[in-house]
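Researcher: I'd like a structural prediction for the single chain below. Treat it as a standalone chain; there are no partners to consider.
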Amino acid sequence: MADEAGTKRLYRILDFARVVQIFERGELYFAKPSTWEDPYEQRIKHSKDHALFAQCWSELGISDAMWRIYSQNGMGVRISTTTEKLVGVMKAACKEKGYKYRVKEVEYKSQSAINVEAKKIAADLRGAFNVSRAADMLYLKRDAFRHENEWRATFLALSEDRASDKKGLAIKIDPHGFIDRILLDPRAPDELVSAFKYYFKSKIKFRGEVARSVLYKSPPPFEIEDDVINIEDL
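Model: Treating it as a single chain, here is the predicted structure.
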């Protein structure tokens, strides 16, 4: 099920509390797709859907839309890593726990095209079930989500019990080695930025850069002084 990815920088915007959990627990959490809001994530029901756990990243580092969606009240924190590091921690988990993994870019299509693809995948699975083919559906999304520029990391954990109500699984990582840089919400007030910087730099001794996004930083204005106005030019 593994798809090797060329090295690319990846980003996630999470609530500050969730980033704290990554550092203090030394864990990376993968959710069951059935817990996500998009119903198309579970368009195909199959015998191994309980064993698939995934995590979403973006290759787009600067995005007004992503800050507004995933950072509530300025409490969002963007972490960054690379596909190489993500594959590395997933491989280590597979070796320890017997999982299989996939790291791959999501493909965006129209809703009608997604319906056609889902029908093809379902037909293939009815003919000869293959969990890798079933996972293909997790890498197709509707055009309405194209702003995410998503890469998805997925585990197949066949050891999981279908009767379990487990919503996700966590793997052990070294957060200081895995996360390269931390960026704070460009709309966050100075007091919040100072508090977050104190936590990351002074309390947990994060070695990478911690800064506020400059997305909304005002550029120097072009000042024009002219007392003569040519009305005809308006």
